[in-house]
Design goal:
heterodimer, A: about 130 residues, alpha/beta, 5 strands, globular, B: about 290 residues, alpha+beta, seven-stranded antiparallel beta sheet, 7 helices, elongated
């Protein structure tokens, strides 16, 4: 499992969803978060963070710059090629899933989710990146 | 041998002798593309995984193949009695591309549903996914049991719901044009947000407003999946929030009327409105 001390970037245009995600992560023992309201702000946060971000959990469907836009930017930059990246969405379409997998998403989650599901997802993503 | 090929009347089954790895997926994808080109009557491709499992990286090979097969009205299946395989596929959204099954008999003939006709105001097949979505989302996200009452035609009965905040999604598709509105009084909204976010709230702050949109977004996502599986073609839509004190909701383009679905919870009632407009005939013609 991820070390509870890691810094996690949580991206969603809805403040309430960022709160839901961070609340669940806190219950799992994590405490170091940065939040961003869209893909562009998240990219800035990734680049400006004093300590390295070790996990990104991003919504897909956001105005301005989507979660997929952010994932493309992240995977296109040598520094973040192996950064674990989970996409969250309320609408899992086949073409969306395929696109995200082609770009290199580490895991995919459909909202709403339980704490247990998020925990399982983090464990699976951690295992994939450790392999 | 890495796999055995079994050809049925309408399907080809690949019985794997080991884990579905990237290299095996590449080999199979090449063979499947060639096979489906020369055998048009094949409707289904089955990866018979036994209990061998799937390497996550193989999804990168499988997904474009699955989308290609769908375009030619074929469906891809992953067959296994091992629950962890179907759980993995579902949790990664891969079940939209490769359907998990336990036996060949679960293969559906005519995998792509025909486009559906525009729903009327009391079409249960259209309304139920929204009701189920609301109950599901509130249960998971707000730990709240919601009970739906019988839908009523808006304006037909005296049933007042105070609305202080609402989330709204407008939809235009070949089968349905209209709007979905989730209406809350301040009291029930604050109670739901409190449960969803684990904090107590005394008023609807600007930060809290988008919770109405997020709930509707998740409900719409749930309903959309069911409806699209049944032949609708809804695309993604972003919710908007409307605030006001004791406001009323009008569906300007709801020539087909609007229905109101009341939901009861331990903390009070809220309602969903579905406004039925005219379907996008231009798109309907195009898709016909």
């Amino acid at each position: 499992m991820f070390d509870p001390k890691i810094k996690i970037l949580v991206v969603d245009d809805m403040m309430t969803m960022r709160k839901i995600v961070t609340k669940a992560l806190k219950e799992m023992g994590f405490s170091d978060f940065i939040e961003a309201g869209d893909g562009a702000k998240a990219w800035e946060a990734l680049n400006q963070s004093a300590t390295a971000v070790s996990l990104v959990i991003s919504d897909w469907n956001m105005p301005n710059s989507t979660g997929l836009d952010l994932l493309k930017r992240v995977r296109g930059d040598g520094r973040f090629k192996k950064l674990p990246f989970i996409l969250l969405t309320a609408e899992a379409e086949a073409t969306q899933v395929s696109e995200a997998i082609q770009v290199g998403v580490s895991g995919y989650m459909v909202k709403p989710f339980t704490l247990e599901l998020l925990k399982e997802k983090l464990e699976a993503v951690h295992k994939r990146h450790a392999a | 041998m890495l796999y055995e090929k079994i050809t049925g009347e309408h399907f080809i089954q690949y019985k794997l002798n080991g884990r579905l790895t990237v290299s095996l997926a590449e080999t199979l994808a090449t063979e499947i593309r060639a096979e489906t080109e020369k055998t048009p009557k094949v409707e289904a491709i089955v990866f018979d995984l036994q209990n061998h499992g799937i390497e996550y990286k193989s999804f990168k090979v499988i997904t474009p193949l699955g989308l290609e097969l769908r375009k030619s009205k074929r469906q891809m299946y992953a067959m296994s009695e091992d629950k962890s395989i179907s759980t993995l596929l579902r949790s990664e959204g891969m079940d939209k591309i490769i359907t998990p099954i336990r036996a060949i008999s679960e293969i559906k003939r005519g995998a792509t549903p025909a486009p559906v006709a525009s729903p009327s105001a009391f079409d249960v097949n259209f309304i139920n996914p929204f009701i189920e979505g609301t109950i599901h989302v509130l249960k998971i996200q707000c730990q709240t049991a919601a009970i739906a009452s019988r839908p009523i035609l808006k304006g037909s009965e005296e049933m007042k719901f105070q609305t202080d905040i609402a989330g709204l999604i407008g939809i235009t598709s070949p089968s349905f044009s209209g709007s979905i509105v989730l209406r809350f009084s301040e009291k029930i909204f604050l109670s739901l947000m409190g449960k969803m976010l684990g904090e107590e709230y005394k008023e609807i702050t600007q930060d809290l407003e988008d919770g109405a949109g997020e709930l509707l977004n998740m409900i719409f996502g749930h309903a959309k999946k069911v409806l699209n599986d049944n032949g609708h073609s809804f695309e993604k839509a972003l919710p908007t929030i409307v605030r006001g004190s004791a406001m009323s909701v009008n569906h300007a383009s709801a020539q087909g009327g609007a229905i109101l679905i009341p939901f009861a919870t331990d903390d009070g009632m809220f309602c969903m409105e579905i406004g039925f407009g005219k379907a996008d005939k231009r798109e309907e013609k195009r898709s016909a």
